[in-house]
Specification:
Radius of gyration: 22 Å
Order of helices and strands: HEEHEHEHHEEEHEHEEEE
CATH class: Alpha Beta
CATH topology: Purple Acid Phosphatase, chain A, domain 2
Strand content: 15-25%
Oligomer: single chain
Number of strands: 12
Shape: globular
CATH architecture: 4-Layer Sandwich
CATH superfamily: Metallo-dependent phosphatases
Helix content: 25-40%
Distance between the termini: 77 Å
Number of helices: 7
C-alpha cells in the first residue's frame, strides 16, 4: 500500500517574518498619511426637529470643520474639498472652526495661511455661509482669522445669533466664541426663548463637550468639530488623539435631553499627518 505524505506548509523564516513586519510597519503610516488622510467621506444625516417650520422641511445644512491649513492640509486637498462641497446642493454651509494650526509656523506665515484658507473657502457656492472660531484660531489671533474670513465674504458668528427666513417663517443660527480659550458666552450667543417663540435654534460650537452647558438654553441642534474623530482609530483601542473638551462626544450623532448634537470629524490633522480608520468628513444634515 502506498502512503502519500500530506503537503507541509512552507515555514516562514525569521528573516522573512521581519521583512514582512517591516513592510507592514512602513505601509500603514504611508496609507494613513498619503491615502486615508485624503479619502473624504460624505455623511448624510436626517435631523428631526419637532417644531420645524414647514418652509424648512428638507433644508440641507452642509458642515465642514478643522481645516488646519496649511500645516498638513495641502492647497490641492482643500481645493478638492471645496469641489466636493459644490457638488452637493446645500441651503446653508457652516464652517465650525480651526482654519489654521497655532504652532510650528511664524506669525506672518500663519496669518498668510488664514487668508489663503479663506480664499479657498470663498469658492464655496452657497448663498448662506457662516463660520465660528476654533481653539487654534483663538490661540493664534481670533480677530485676524475673523478678518481673513470676512474679507472673503464669510460671516463669523462670535457669541451672536441671526434669523434665517423662508416664506415668512424662520429658524435661528447662533455661534459661540471658542470654549477652550474661554471665549464662549452662551448667554450672549443664544437669544432667549421669548425672543424666538416656537422657532428652532441651531448652535455652532467648536468643542462638543460643552453640550451639557448648552441644553438649558433650549438649543434644538448643536454642530461641533474639534475632535477629528480621534484622527487615528486602531481596532479594539480607544481613539488616540482626543483634545480637551472633545473626549466625551467624539464623532457623529448624540442626544442629551431635547438637544441633538452632531460632531464632524474635520478635514485636517494635527500632531501627526495621519488619519487611520477615521476619514475626513463632509456632513450633510437634512432637517425634517
Amino acid at each position: 500500500m502506498e502512503i502519500s505524505a500530506s503537503p507541509q506548509r512552507p515555514r516562514i523564516s525569521r528573516r522573512r517574518f521581519l521583512a514582512l513586519s517591516g513592510v507592514t510597519a512602513l505601509g500603514v503610516p504611508l496609507y494613513a498619511g498619503e491615502i486615508s488622510r485624503h479619502e473624504i467621506s460624505v455623511e448624510h444625516v436626517a435631523i428631526r426637529i419637532a417644531n420645524l417650520p414647514e418652509a424648512f422641511q428638507g433644508f440641507r445644512i452642509l458642515q465642514i470643520s478643522d481645516f488646519h491649513y496649511a500645516n498638513f492640509t495641502e492647497p490641492f486637498f482643500l481645493k478638492v474639498v471645496v469641489e466636493r462641497v459644490n457638488h452637493i446642493a446645500a441651503d446653508l454651509v457652516v464652517l465650525t472652526g480651526d482654519f489654521i494650526t497655532n504652532d510650528t509656523w511664524s506669525r506672518p506665515e500663519i496669518l498668510r495661511f488664514a487668508y489663503d484658507c479663506a480664499a479657498h473657502l470663498s469658492h464655496i457656492r452657497c448663498p448662506l455661509r457662516y463660520a465660528i472660531m476654533g481653539n487654534h484660531d483663538a490661540g493664534f489671533d481670533p480677530k485676524a482669522v475673523t478678518a481673513a474670513l470676512e474679507e472673503h465674504h464669510i460671516q463669523v458668528l462670535n457669541n451672536e445669533a441671526i434669523p434665517i427666513e423662508r416664506d415668512g417663517q424662520r429658524i435661528w443660527l447662533a455661534g459661540t466664541g471658542d470654549a477652550v480659550a474661554k471665549h464662549a458666552r452662551f448667554d450672549l450667543a443664544i437669544p432667549p426663548k421669548s425672543g424666538r417663540p416656537g422657532e428652532p435654534l441651531i448652535l455652532l460650537a467648536h468643542e462638543p463637550d460643552v453640550l451639557p452647558e448648552v441644553v438649558p438654553y433650549g438649543v434644538d441642534l448643536m454642530l461641533s468639530g474639534h475632535t477629528h474623530g480621534g484622527q487615528v482609530r486602531l481596532p479594539f483601542v480607544p481613539p488616540m488623539f482626543l483634545p480637551a473638551l472633545g473626549e466625551i462626544y467624539t464623532e457623529g450623532y448624540y442626544r442629551l435631553g431635547p438637544t441633538q448634537l452632531y460632531v464632524n470629524r474635520g478635514i485636517g490633522a494635527v500632531g501627526v499627518p495621519f488619519r487611520f480608520n477615521c476619514p475626513p468628513e463632509i456632513s450633510v444634515l437634512t432637517l425634517a
